[in-house]
## 1
Amino acid sequence: MKALILLCVLLSSLTACTTTQIDEERSQSASVAAHEVIAILGRRHNANYETEPDFISCIGRGVSKTGVNVLSELELMNALYPWFEPRTAPLKLRRLEKLMQIPEFSAKIQELDLAYIVWVDGSTETVDSAGSVSCAVGPGGAGCIGFGTWQDDSTYEATVWDIRDMKTIATVSAEAEGTSYMPAVIVPIPIIARVQAAACDGLSTQLQGLFANP
Amino acid sequence: MLLIVTLLTGCGPNVVNLKNLQTLPKPVVSPLDAHVGIFYDEEFKQYTYSEKRDVAIGGEWIITIGPTQHTVFNSILGGIFSEMRELETLDADVTGLDAIVVPKVVDFQFALPTDNRVNIFEIWVKYQLSIRDTSGEELGSWPFTAYGKTPTAMLTSSEQAIHAAALIAMRDAGASLVSGLERDPRLREWLGAEPMQPKPRRRPPPRRPDGEGPRP
């Protein structure tokens, strides 16, 4: 029985391989004072996809490990409502400069001590799948048989805006891909490629380097 | 037998009752100097959309957004204007007001992943704001839309996904109202907030030194 439990634990902890490629373009380093905050936001204006909120939370958790105060998406959207909704969010710095001309808006930015905004754009998609797994239940028990496989691709780009100087200081992109497998002989054994998590790790590491105080 | 009976589920409609947006923030805007009354009819305050589809493409849906849109409009318009008063009837006392706003839902659509072939749930609401003077005469009307979508991956049921998309649409209604007021000078003029400024005259092109007309 112990051996069976051990086998189940081992099989459930199997993960498939993931390939990640990171590119960074940086014009200057970031400098965040202890009282300042940064906001990490997902782009939501595209009709065909939207940057996943859990991916943005993952990046936020990664960056906050450096000790930088990270404002969540919803906190910033509520604090500056309605200027960071999908319809109204500034796509370019020029638009943000225009919004700063609204006295209430610029006062709120100052009140928040917002130093940088990190815009993350992209998504994870299943681009290919094959095979099938069939399951059946009968009087003698239940079981599955078959083999399934699918490929996930993640493409994300993070753009860092310096709010004080109104300029873009860095662009980081992450591309990850991996194929997951699910063989099933009575019990399905998922061997998942953690593609989105790999993209999150890659982007977070680069952003940690950018925001880490020297 | 008891187990089978308990596992049976009925084929009732998918019901989405939008919960009130208790946390809708006050808009970060410079209030317009206008005293505006707003009248919501019962249909707007209780707005419910229902649609019967084939079971294979979603079945019956009943989506109620009325109470939430009532809250959203009060919150947004209350933040936009220096004074906003909700009127119980169109005959109510309008002393001190510059204009009266009457919103109406003119169209409502929703889409499930089976409709749009992408893994998102969508809500689309078209509103019309009728802007009237204090005697009730319509000065103009302004249509605007609210849109919300949510990916399937985040949620456990279709009702939950439509609920989330509808909440995003309600926030978008506020954004649409604010950006409309920012962009459309006619709207501000109808509301008595700011007179429409004449467009600045374009400078005539400089003349050629020989005085024979504009430079090429």
Note: The radius of gyration of chain B is 23 Å.
## 2
Amino acid sequence: MYKPKILVVEDDPAISNLIRTTLDTQNYQYHTAKNGSSAILDAVSYKPDVIILDLGLPDMDGVDIIKKVRGWSNLPIIVVSARSEDQDKVDALDAGADDYLTKPFSVDEFLARLRVALRRSHTEETAGEEGSVYNNGELKIDYAAGCAYIRDTEIHLTPIEYKLLCLLAKNTGKVLTHNYILREIWGSALESDIPSLRVFMATLRKKIETNPSSPRYIQTHVGIGYRMIRQ
Amino acid sequence: MEEQRPDPQQLLHSIRAQETRAQQGRLKIFFGYAAGVGKTYAMLQAAHQAQSAGRDVVVGYVERHIRPETLALLDGLEQLPCKEIEYKGVSLREFDIDAALRRRPQLILVDELAHSNAAGSRHAKRYQDVEELLRAGIDVYTTVNVQHLESLNDLVESITHIAVSERIPDHIFDSADQVELVDIEPVDLISRLRAGKVYQRGQAQRALSNFFTEENLIALREIALRRTADRLNRAAQKVGQEAAARAGEHILLCLSSSPSNAGVIRTAARMAEAFHSSFTALFVETPETRELKGDHLKRLRDNLRLAEQMGAQIASVYGDDPAVQIAEFARASGITKIVLGRTNHRPGLFFKGKTLVDRLTDYAGDLEIYIIPDTQPLYKKKLRLLRGEDFRFSWRDLLKTMIVTVLATLIGWAFFALGLREANIIIVYILGVLVTTIWTQGHLYGALASLLSVIAFNYFFTAPHFSLEATAPDYPVTFLIMLAASVISSTLATRVKKQAKQASQKAYYTELLMNCNQKLQQGRDEQEILQLASQQLSILLDRPILFALAKKEKLHFHVMPAAREQEILQGLTSEEYGVADWVVKNNKRAGATTTTLSNAHNLYLAVRGTQGVMGVVAIPFKYYPDLEVFEKNLMISIVNECGLVLERRRLQQEKQSIELETQQERLRSNLLRAISHDLRTPLTSISGNAGILMEKSIALNEEKKQELYSSIYDDSMWLVNLTENLLSITRIENGTMHLQMDAQLLADVFQEALAHVDRQAKEHQITTELPDDLLMARMDVRLIVQVIINIVNNAIKYTPVGSHIVLRAERWGSMVEVSISDDGSGILNEEKTHLFDMFYTASQGNSDNRRGLGLGLSLCRSIVVAHGGTISVTDNHPHGSVFTFTLPLEEVEVKNV
């Protein structure tokens, strides 16, 4: 069986210990780095499947590490931050991080996020090609035909809703910030457009989710953005 | 007794003066009564002494034509190189102030304080350089001769008959920290001169016969000694002086453009000193003075500056009749003595039968009036009609005059044809002259119209018609009277017109000033106050005004009106910024029309508060006309007003922020006390349980271990929740500004909140009801999620297992109403009132396992109130309670591209 390799970048010994213990219970391979510069070296030499990155490192800003890594690799990065301001997370996500965790986090939550990230790196490796059909649980998108299906019934989407769905699907497992989505769909990133985005998301969700109040596919990250979950 | 007690204000003032003095350099003046008494020699000797006492001494500038003995004294002293300035092909050596400021010695020697710098230097006068050195904290030694003192200038001139153009204001001399009189017997000086020690041989002979006569020298020496003694006297009386001035004399001096006015100013200044009185120079602006040009205008400006230098307060009033204006001003300002020159105010042609002095005595009989005799040749006031500048020729006005005369003739012709009498025709012509006067500029056209009318009347209407001859014997009289009547009426009309113009201008200025203060008060912040002041200045001076607040960083100019801001700011060179910086640093005006850095395009004024420079205002002069005295005064008043308002605002803000800080400090300390008390319980539980697990792990069965684990977990979750609440409190505490308001879907908010409620929630039935699932409200989502979590956690905590909790949101007018209801046992009425108070915890149930800071609901209320909503609690039916709060509704216009 393939054992995923995880690079843990964390300078606090207690948190580092907690993460390592958690990874041990799941039989994951891991390697730890205590600062930014060794993290970048390890990211090259250790070839991890996922990086868990603490934003508050002693030697450099976590966002810079993300930018450096993104310079040559698309491997999933999960950011861990003790800062409560949303803007830090949004910055990290905009720099190319896939997901974030705020301290204190529960072990269950941590493992769930890790699984999502691993699934993304896995599907990217196996699927590789941008298939013309997207399958996720009961959701199916036929890119060639420009149609989406739930349980093989076509759902009727407005052009914007369809574009939103495709954008989320192509970045499955990744948290997309409001600004990123606005830029991709509308070509602008005005704060004032975010409420519109929320309304579109709500209507889209109503069409694809069986129970919109506890969504399976599209997750809302309040104050940050949205994410498509792989079923 | 009371009189002797020092006024606290005055004490404070003198303490402040002493404080600034401590930072300022000290000035020592070597004072002599003539060249050659040995001032420079004494100065250099003193410098050597200072140097051997361990001070850092530098020679900034010493005249080169000094005697060998003096030159020898320069040995061993560091000398600053002079600046070479090229002026009209001649290379001039000047003191280099920038080098001195860079070198920053403790003490610097600068010879000849009264020297005028070459054009292109920073300051026009050397004493200004010295003032800047002193402000920079450098001590200065300098030399000056008695004839260079402004107030003694004319006195010395009357003795020696030699005019001295280089002068220093008396306040420099009086405020010097030390004055050393360098004295020598006149006889010795003459013998020194004979020996060629002061001037070269040839020059010495001339000097001996002209200036250095024994009588002259004795007189000069006496003046110098007396002036030095006066200065000592004044220093001793300094404290008493201000009080005396307030209770005692107030001298008013009348400024004019007359060349003899300078003498009047000096005399008045000497009087003011003798009486220890306050001293005001008044300029009466009349229609005539507005038309002053060339030499007159320049002389007026010089006189103004002179009065200012002599320590006078400058005031100006606007009116037609100087006597009335002076009398009114004197009465309003409590003037006791008026000083006037004699010549300038000759009786007028028509209206002023009396001299100004006579009229002034009529209006203000209780005032003492001093008339200073005139030694200058008569200064003739030319006939106004003949003055070239008064008459502005324009074809338009000439045409208007013609048209009116022709019209009058036509009407007259009609009257004539109707057989009306000649008198009517004359009246029509006089009416025509009046119309012409009102319609044209300058009263020459009125006179022309009068003349034309008489000729036309003669030509058309007197027998024989169509000829300039008049047969009837009484016609010459008719013509004369007609001419006189029309000239007088045209003159009167001109005056009425002028007065109307003056009145409207005066009303306009007064209104401007009155509005100014009110407007400035409305400024929301310092930037806006300064902007409003600049707007007023811009209206007043009819040009764009640049302004910048003086802060620690570089000056950042804005322009009012903002229309051409970009263009104007681009034209602002680094030299201009340099001038502005100088103004901020030195708290003095500089630039165009001043004597400091006068090459600049703009005039830079410091906007002063009592504690320093608050900002800078720049007034462009390059493409704009010079200012009139009245405008200048108004400008200064506005700038001063602005400085005061700015300062008041700054103090107010400081006070507010201190108050806010105290309040927050109090809240914080309450909070800290509560926290440290309440944190102990969960921390004891966590550390205790963990300790047991570490040491006694083997002795415990699995069930017991699980119990300890979950206890540790629960307590830490409680701490997590507390941390979130505390974080929210810090954000709220800093005021509502930090709310990140954003339109949010209530559905998302509920979902987010429910993901964070306690684990025990699994034992409660939580449902959401959203009639409109696209309902949106404006909120800081983190804080509102916190509110919902707190209320739901409370509901979980205080209701039995299995209770139902319902989250509901719906539109309520322009608000969104969120309600969280439970079917627990409800809340007692007396508790409802305290529920939202800080540190209040419900007493019901078992207090051992229900701990809490009582922060939750008080925080909820703060957050909701900060959002502009309300929060309340009511009873649920049949039992339980409902928490309801409101948030501003957001209606989204969906962007459908």
Note: Chain B is about 50% helix and 15% strand.
